Amino acid sequence: MHGVVMVWFFLVPSIPAVLGNFLIPLMIGARDVAFPRLNLLSWYLFMIGGIMAVAAIVAGGVDTGWTFYTPYSTTYANSAVVPMVAGIFIAGFSSILTGINFIVTVHTMRTRGMTWFRMPLFVWAMYATSLVMVLATPVLAITLSLVAVERLWGVGIFDPALGGDPILFQHLFWFYSHPAVYIMILPSMGVISELVTCFSRNQIFGYKFIAFSSLAIAALGFLVWGHHMFVSGQSIYASLVFSMLSFMVAIPSGVKVFNWIVTLRNGTISYKTPMLYALGFVGLFTVGGLTGLFLASLAVDIHVHDTYFVVAHFHYIMVGSAVMAYLGGIHYWWPKMTGRTYPEKWGVFSAVLLFLGFNLTFFPQFVLGYMGMVRRVAEYPPEFQVLNVLSSAGASILGVAYLIPLIYLTHSLLMPRTAGPNPWNAKGLEWTTASPPPEHNFDEPPTVTEPPYNYEQEAVAVALSAGPPEEGPDHGRTGQENA
Amino acid sequence: MPQDMTNPNAKALSIYRNVAALLGLLLIATIVARWMPLGRLNLIVALAIACAKATLVAVYFMHLRQASRVNRVFATVGILWLAILIALTLVDYAQRG
Amino acid sequence: MTELPCDNLNVPHHFDDAGQHYDAVSLGMWIFLATEVMFFGGLFTAYIIYRMRNPEAFAAAGHHLYMWLGAVNTAILLTSSWTMALAVHAAKHDDRRAAVRKLLLTAGLGALFLLIKAVEYYLDAHEHLVPGATFRASWSQPTANVQLFFFLYFVMTGLHAVHMLVGVGVMLTLAARASMSRKPMRSLANAVDMAGLYWHFVDIVWIFLFPLLYLVA
């Protein structure tokens, strides 16, 4: 259940819905997304799906895991499977509609001069994410529908008694769910590209490599799903193919990490809250990504499959990376979205606390998993107690680190709108309009003549050293960018 | 049909009519082929004819011929991605009992 | 290449012009159709796998479908694609009467398809071919793999029928809007065009369902 809520109702929609909807039109100089009413429908579907999922939780929840493996989910489970998969099905269409909207927006609504290679990398990342959303999610939809049908009517194609194969469910499920993890991480990578450039006052190193690596991750991500099924009974030759492809899909992610690091190295870093989240991302994503390679290796996976090693791996990516990027993005664009600023010192404190709490929570889980602690069980052998207690302690710290921004960000909404159009002195079309932007985003459609991230090296980051200004002269540029 | 139609108009309408006729012929071919004893080729022939019909509908009725490049790319991508799903799943099933 | 409907009537505010509007809606529809390919695709994948594993059971089962009803339905759908193309043509050429007539004709053919499908389902049920407690395959025991075929048959044609129903509804709605509106027919051209793409797609799904389900040799 934690998995269901986190995957489908937080990680998949968070950056696309909260940041993507707002930023994509701004970043390409458009008045709105291509289909605003479809966008609204997407929101309603998300809410309806969410309410159904909550209803399923209230009705007792599901004990199948977010993976709904058959025949347990179809035949033997006595939990609220049907309402839960219905909620996920509906939320899935929310995802699909968002994906369609973003792809069409990027193709057809770029302003004059905004060529593909002048777009911010966040837009490239969201475009790649949208490709995955539209191609993968429908398969999830049909697969969960089949689970519901089999549960409701007692017949289906996953029932061995009828000649069905439970592993077919796994193929169909993971065909979506592996690309889904790229839906969850690609937007975060886009955010990081924005943060790293602004807070090191530097052009991005290897723009085209990063842009194309997003597309490569989206495409290659569809070819690796069998690495979730190494021990399910999948043929060994298929496992070999999937293992090799899984190693390959790590390469474009590596390209991004190298390029961000070089960007940082060549720049002048300012340690503002968003940058702290971004730096945390770079380190934690490296750990998460590399441990993914451990899992892609057949021999190692046999040992650590279904242990806490896997849990630690994906939490390094999903929490250590995706959530940190989300928070970094929220803090960075908070002034733009709301017109308000947040208290920088509390921001720094929470970011550091989060990093510490996160590592205390999840690093011990790598050790636990390697030592043999399995996942999805209610009890563990006593020799694992110390590490588990450490992990729980870390989780409490993590919880506090989430609570603090919740409080100060909410509190900032009670303050007057003093942020100004460009408190970070950042490049990008979104910073050329008011905070928050008018209804059609720009007073006049902008014309683009500059490459993206056109930062010059500034001897002293004057505008940034004092944090976002409470009020006073605006340090950014208003109106159109100069040629 | 009105007599004062411009040429492109009449041309388009006759294309639709010809495609429709061709589809009808292909349907007859599908049924005739079903009764021919071709063994394993029956399936291949049936699917080939189905592909031909689908292509005709897509190119002429759905105007893929005049569509922009990006539309044509997405039309292809859908089918290509289904092919990926089927192919890699078959990699597993082809080697199991 | 951009196909321009005749003028910039009724272009929503966030678009620059009718050309951009058309590019957006047509790309949006093609992407949606790609998602539909993947949606049906899961079922086609299951069908392919199970047919590969149970060739005789599937072949024997397929014989018990009503092939001629299926063939007639195929002919109906192919014809309806033709009438749909004519409707789009008429809409773009501002010919309200022809467009409305062709839309109604398309909807009518679709409804006829659904009627025949309903008859087929009724006959299938009568012969105890619906998987579940009532299933009885007189020609084969045990019935395990045979039920797989019929499950896939009902789900695939059923999902297709749902899509057809939506399509018929859309055509009727468009016909009603076109006949009652005072705006020129060409202002609805985009809507009819996009609905046409959807209709043709549903036809293409059936083009593949027919040989796979009804013509198993």
Explain what this protein looks like in three dimensions:
The complex is a heterotrimer of chains A (483), B (97) and C (217). With 483 residues, chain A is mainly alpha-helical. Chain A has two domains: 1-270, Cytochrome c oxidase-like, subunit I domain (Cytochrome C Oxidase, Chain A), CATH 1.20.210; 280-338 and 342-414. Chain A contains 15 helices and no strands. Chain A has helices spanning 2-11, 14-28, 36-58, 72-76, 81-108, 121-153, 166-198, 207-220, 236-265, 273-296, 298-304, 308-338, 344-371, 385-412, 462-465. Chain B has 97 residues and is an all-alpha fold. In chain B, 76% of the residues lie in helices and 0% in strands. Chain B is flat, with a radius of gyration of 19 Å. The N and C termini of chain B lie far apart (61 Å). Chain C has helices at 18-53, 55-62, 67-92, 96-126, 144-180, 189-214. At the B-C interface, helix 1, helix 2 and helix 3 of B face helix 1, helix 3 and helix 6 of C.
Gross morphology of chain B: flat
Number of alpha- plus pi-helical segments of chain C? 6
- The helix/strand order of chain B is HHH
Radius of gyration of chain C using CA atoms only: 20 Å
The CA-CA distance between the termini of chain B, in Å, is 61 Å
CATH class descriptor name of chain C: Mainly Alpha
How many separate helices of chain B?
3
Assembly category: heterotrimer
Tell me the domain tally of chain C.
1
